[in-house]
Amino acid sequence: MKSKVQFRLRIYRDESIAIGPGKIALLEAIAETGSISAAGRQLGMSYRRAWMLIDEMNRALSAPAVSTATGGTHGGGSALTPVGEQIVRHYRAVESTARVAAAADITALTRLLAP
């Protein structure tokens, strides 16, 4: 059996998760695909679910993380704003810092797992 270590940082605003692992994955997929619907498909979620997560995040922030353009002759699309890019960068940096800082304890814990 193989072990896996996963950090699950969530930042709440009131009762809703403003920033969390699922929203970060969605932001990264939007950056890669240029589309909320394509990002949702890539992550196995409906367009509605993806849109609701982005809307919830955008409402929790002082400036939106994602900008959208409606369809038309050239089609629509979505992109991360500078705020969205900062969120992904800082979130991944926190994960990296935590992983390095906790490396010895993580090793000790995983050694306690059954083979």
Total helical elements: 5
Q: Find the count of extended strands (DSSP E, 2+ residues).
A: 4
Oligomer: single chain
Q: Helical percent range?
A: 40-55%
* Span between termini: 7 Å
Largest sheet properties: 2 strands, antiparallel
Secondary-structure-based class equals alpha+beta
Radius of gyration over alpha carbons?
17 Å
**Helix and strand succession?**
EEHHHEEHH
Average pLDDT score = 93
Strand content: 5-15%
Quick one: overall form? elongated
Widest sheet, order of strands? 1-2
Low-confidence stretches: none
What does this 3D model show about the protein?
By secondary structure, the protein is an alpha+beta fold. The strands form two sheets. The chain has a two-stranded antiparallel sheet. The termini are close together.
What can be said about this structure in brief?
The chain has helices at 21-33, 36-42, 47-60, 82-101, 103-111, and strands at residues 11-13, 16-19, 66-69, 77-80. By secondary structure, the chain is an alpha+beta fold. The longest helix has 20 residues, at 82-101.
